[in-house]
Amino acid sequence: MDRLAAMETFVLVVDAGSFSAAARRLNIGQPAVSKLVAQLEERLGVKLLARTTRGLTATEAGFNYYQRARRSIEEADEAETAARGAGTSLTGKLRIAAAVTFARIHLMPRLPEFLQRHPDAARCSPLRPDRRRTRRLIARPKGSRGDRLTRAELLPSRLMPLDR
118: which DSSP letter? Predict the structure, then answer.
């Protein structure tokens, strides 16, 4: 028996108020839920639920176990979320190449939200295009050459090199 799965099942039974409701939420049969809770009670050596014809109630030991199990499940969920998020966060320099109008209308309003979601991405300074160049922008992170958004020459392929 998987301890975390048994804890989750028990917590769901207490939250739902019955084995049947918990089984529907878990998409398994009611006997399987009842068996998991019975195995958990046997392993712990204590009755967690008082079963009557009117329903289920947690015993004192069951209520204490419920509170701790709920916290443990929440912490396990947070640990999984943190582990998943650690590999998906963006880091490093942020360079943007876009037409001036497009950048002003679509990119610049969304840049603060992007930087808030990805705090390890290098920040860019406000839009200050060089009007003497073509209508392409490159965002340079703070501390790099220029420390601002500048225009650059368009290449024949209309792509900007990242090493500029």
Answer: -
